[in-house]
Specification:
binds adenosine-5'-diphosphate, 6-stranded mixed beta sheet, 10 strands, binds magnesium ion, 8 helices, alpha/beta
Length: about 240
């Protein structure tokens, strides 16, 4: 199992400012699986992703990545695990303007002490997987929105990064670009990775292996590929 959330709860604040952002969430992702997460604004989608990626810690419950309980790791060990195994894609791509596409993608590897030569090689492989290898030497401002997004995805899957976490990455983009993101995520999963895609777009979500619906911090339903898109849309609307 690459990712396991075991009864994970995340509470913010206390007393009258107490917010239960996520309550008793259970979720497992195996190699090859793509899960979509849907739910209204404030329902806990980003919280779930931040906990899965070790960016935030649960108030109760446990998060396992590669069967390792994240709570047992030191801050440094958790950061290293994140750099090596987990990739994030946000709605803002967070690319560094002064670095080329290839340099943006190789950065997490170089931060991890991997040699410049190997890091560059792996960055080019990742850019190849998102089909923009020929744009490796361009700077972000020389790329379209869709291309920048592919660079962000390449950075999230570079090297040994297996768990791809995407938080509404298609929010600002047109439908075609959204479908491209989904195809790239799918291919990443087919090559042995796994991913979680937070999206508002039920047409995109319908391509995932499973859909998790959140409401008020609780997983209220799970649909799988055997549910027809029509059933699914009825559930979402
Ligand atoms: P979503 O991504 O589905 O819109 P979030 O996971 O961002 O929802 O937030 C879930 C709930 O937790 C919301 O009510 C939000 O206001 C609250 N929340 C998230 N982060 C914090 C925080 N750092 N402090 C207080 N409340 C927070
Ligand atoms: Mg969010």
């Amino acid at each position: 199992m690459i990712l396991k959330l075991h009864n994970v709860t995340r509470i913010h604040g206390e007393g009258h400012t107490r917010v239960a952002a996520l309550v008793n969430a259970k979720l497992s992702l195996d190699r090859g699986e793509l899960v979509a997460v849907m739910g209204p604004s404030g329902s806990g989608k980003s919280t779930l992703l931040a906990l899965a990626g070790g960016l935030d810690q649960p108030t109760a419950g446990k998060v396992f990545v590669d069967d390792v309980d994240l709570a047992t790791l030191s801050v440094a060990a958790r950061a290293a695990l994140r750099r090596r195994r987990i990739g994030y894609v946000f709605q803002q791509y967070n690319l560094i303007e002064g670095l080329t596409a290839a340099e943006n993608v190789s950065l997490p590897l170089e931060l991890d002490g991997i040699s410049h030569r190997i890091a560059t090689q792996q960055a080019l492989q990742a850019l190849d997987r998102v089909e923009i290898r020929e744009l490796a030497d361009r700077f972000p401002e020389e790329l379209s929105g869709g291309e920048q997004q592919r660079v962000a995805i390449a950075r999230a899957i570079v090297g040994t990064r297996t768990l791809l976490l995407a938080d509404e990455p298609t929010g600002a983009l047109d439908t075609t670009t959204g479908e491209t993101v989904l195809q790239v995520m799918r291919r990443h999963c087919e090559m042995g990775g796994c991913g979680i895609l937070v999206t508002h777009d039920s047409r995109l979500a319908a391509w995932a292996d499973r859909i998790v619906f959140l409401r008020d911090g609780r997983i209220v339903d799970e649909a799988n590929e055997w549910d027809s898109p029509a059933t699914l849309l009825a559930t979402v609307q």
